[in-house]
Amino acid sequence: MSEKAFLVDISKCQGCRGCQVACKQWNGLPGEKTSFFGGTEYTNPATLSALTWNHVVFYPLDRSNTDRPVWNIKHTKCYHCAEANCMAVCPQMAISKVDGWTVIDQEKCIGCGACVSACVYNVPGLSEIDHKNDVGQHIIHRGKSHKCNACTLNKRDIPACVSTCPSGALEFGHRQAIMKKALKRVKELKKDFPNASVYGLEEFGGLGVITVLRDKPEKYGLPIGKDAQKIDLSKYEEINSIYHTLSVFTMGIPYLQKKAYTIAKALAGDSKKA
Asked: Residue 114 in contact with residue 90, Cβ under 8 Å?
């Protein structure tokens, strides 16, 4: 686990999405082609993806007072779990910790999608396009998995999303100080929001993103209890065992490796789980 952490204070978030824009600008990420959808979240694009590594979703809780409606806002990025499911299931060991942050090695990734299915936060995404930045660097690889890397690859002292936040909803610092600040903030919020809580202190061994919520985590669609623990790896271990046998015949070619993983899933009798 990193000695540092993000603090996301939902009670201060204005929903401006400056973090989304800053993340794309700093990392050279392209915009997404989107279309209107009938959800209640009032946001577009609708979710995190291989091209969107920071995402703000907001939806109404109470619109009975049209002059002052009550909204729930949730800022989402990779939570950088200490015990990361995505890292545990990757058959290529393409996911590792870099300075405590969970990072995908694009040279090793074969786009099998194991990390996508294993992440309860729906963070990693497989890209449908290739993309280079303005200086010709290959940023996005078609068919491979991408997500937030906490600005460890295109390195900066303070992550781009935090640097641009105008309301102070995002902070970055030493983990112990961040946790102390989060607990203090929740104590203040409980005067007006009795169910205010801190998320990320214990989930998956501790998250790299500590979130201050005005309500219970489940109100924001966040997993708790048994749903926020390491998954049963037995099915993935079976698939990976078969895959490693088949991969001998792939000659290290990513396309064939991905096909081998698909066959391994079928032979393990599970085409959806992994």
From this structure: yes
pLDDT digit string (tens) for 61-107?
776 777 777 778 899 999 999 999 999 999 999 999 999 999 999 99
147 beta partners: none
Residues pairing with 4 in the sheet = 174
State the Cα–Cα distance between residues 178 and 163, nearest whole angstrom: 16
Separation between Cα atoms, residue 173 and residue 113, nearest integer Å: 32
Q: What separation in angstroms does the CA of 37 have from each of 43, 44, 46, 75, 269?
A: 9, 8, 8, 20, 35
CA 65 to chain centre: 34
Percent of the chain with pLDDT over 90: 73
Taking the model in full, what pTM does it have?
0.90
Which H or E element spans position 90?
none
Centroid of chain to Cα 178: 19
The CB density around residue 47, as the number of other CB atoms within 10 Å, is: 14
Question: How high is the mean pLDDT of the chain?
Answer: 91
